[in-house]
Amino acid sequence: MLTLLRPLAWFNTLLLRLGRNIAWMALALMVVVILTQVVFRYVLNNALAWPDEAARFLMLWMAGLMAPSAMRWNGFVAIDMLPSALPRKSGLLLTLFLLILSLIVLVVAVGHAYGHTFGFGGRFDSSSLRVPLEWVGLETVKVKLRYMYLSLFVCVILLIFVTVELILRTIISLTDPDAVQPSDDALPIAMEAD
Fold this sequence. Notes:
- This protein is mainly alpha-helical.
- Helix content is 69%, strand content 6%.
């Protein structure tokens, strides 16, 4: 099991680190976009059409790229009294069951996310987001909604990778409690103490 876990943990660490870096940039850009709208609306009395949708676009990507790290670090809101109250092995079996259930839901969600991104809804243009290309002599291009919906598809795929890793970690903890599992060097220090 460790031979399967090590490359997957390494791959997830790499992907999630990249996702977190993109996510903080999306957050910073979202703040700039929102502040731009505030200045134009309340100071210059001229509300712009695009900042609201641009902020939503950036927020969806930020959330989609951060959710897998939150899941890997056990950062989602959870009621963990029952697994903690159970004996170690029973708690791990319950955790394994819940992770397998989560994996099934995520696999079903892939189809929905793909259909929404590349299907009928993704063909529409954004109502206000455009890429201005006049400065290079080209026509302005409207942003397709599929680029916004793609955040959900990417999020679900990354969550599947993380869930498979967590399933492997739980199986290893059940079968060989003394095994040294690979660690995530980006794990917040406060979470390592848990």
